[in-house]
Amino acid sequence: MTLKDEKYLRQLIKILIRNLGILEKSEFSCCGATLGQCHAIVEIGTAGEISLNQLAELLNLDNSTMSRTVNNLVNQRLAERKSDPEDRRYLKIRLTEEGEKVYKTIEESMNSYFYEILGAIPQEKQPQVMESLELLVAALKKIKCCN
Amino acid sequence: MTLKDEKYLRQLIKILIRNLGILEKSEFSCCGATLGQCHAIVEIGTAGEISLNQLAELLNLDNSTMSRTVNNLVNQRLAERKSDPEDRRYLKIRLTEEGEKVYKTIEESMNSYFYEILGAIPQEKQPQVMESLELLVAALKKIKCCN
DNA sequence: AAATAATACTTGCAAAATACAACTGTTTTA
DNA sequence: TAAAACAGTTGTATTTTGCAAGTATTATTT
């Protein structure tokens, strides 16, 4: 690789994140919940059932912050929270029916958004783009674990 | 493309952003400034001279928020701000010598970080990854402008 | 040329996000 | 059994943020 390649890579990723970030924001703002709540809903929905700890880890937030966010979701009847009978230190957080609805709405909207993105990439290039992202993710993992 | 491709794309990008986000945070936290200030420093440094408006647009923040961030940078002698003689509504924001130092530190650290990422990708795949990111960015732009 | 509108930025205010530290309750370990 | 470790909550303080209202400057309209 040449000397400037990493700068270009950085620039590309910067633009990518910025664009996605903006769109993610506007995309999410449809539902009544805040951005943080929506992220939580998606993670809970994906996991089906999850502890506070895990959730906080996934969203890279402090447990206290996470606790309050979940609290709000519970108050809005979007999630429910009960202590794990196996180990009563843990919570089992899951979505209510109402929460599932919101989750599905977000999912649909996000998936159709990414469907659009994919559609805007020439068909013959799509596998390459997928593979490249995999390579990038693998590269990040490699760096992360080895320092 | 198959039905599930967009979900996979979404997942990949999600992981990518999460990883980069976390690393970006920890990477930036080295300098005395906050994350928001660091972003601002990078943008001002890249532009050389920039108005508040443009800066807010770049960072996707409200002008008021941006104004305060710049204010802090000025107070810390990292940036200076004077009104544009051509049109006195605009500001000309630029880095001080001290700010340039911080900017260079961040740049070096970020570039070496991305150099590492690039290095963790098989050499023969690197051009493909670059092209794929370009394609993604282009796809995002295409979607954005046409809705 | 004067009044109006538009623009760039700042500031007052309030709300939301966030983390740290101290706490409770539960389980594991010594 | 006592101490340590862990999951989660709550008090508190800080930070981030944006909206709305303000000032100052420039462009537009009449």
Average pLDDT of chain A works out at 86
Q: Could you tell me the number of beta strands of chain A?
A: 2
Major beta sheet summary of chain A? 2 strands, antiparallel
Q: What is the CATH domain class of chain A?
A: Mainly Alpha
Could you state the CATH homologous superfamily of chain A?
A: Winged helix-like DNA-binding domain superfamily/Winged helix DNA-binding domain
- Order of strands, main sheet of chain A, comes to 1-2
User: How much β-strand is present in the residues of chain A?
Assistant: 5-15%
Largest interface: A-B, 52 and 52 residues
**Can you tell me the overall shape of chain A?**
globular
The secondary-structure class of chain A comes to: mainly alpha
Q: What is the CATH topology assignment of chain A?
A: Arc Repressor Mutant, subunit A
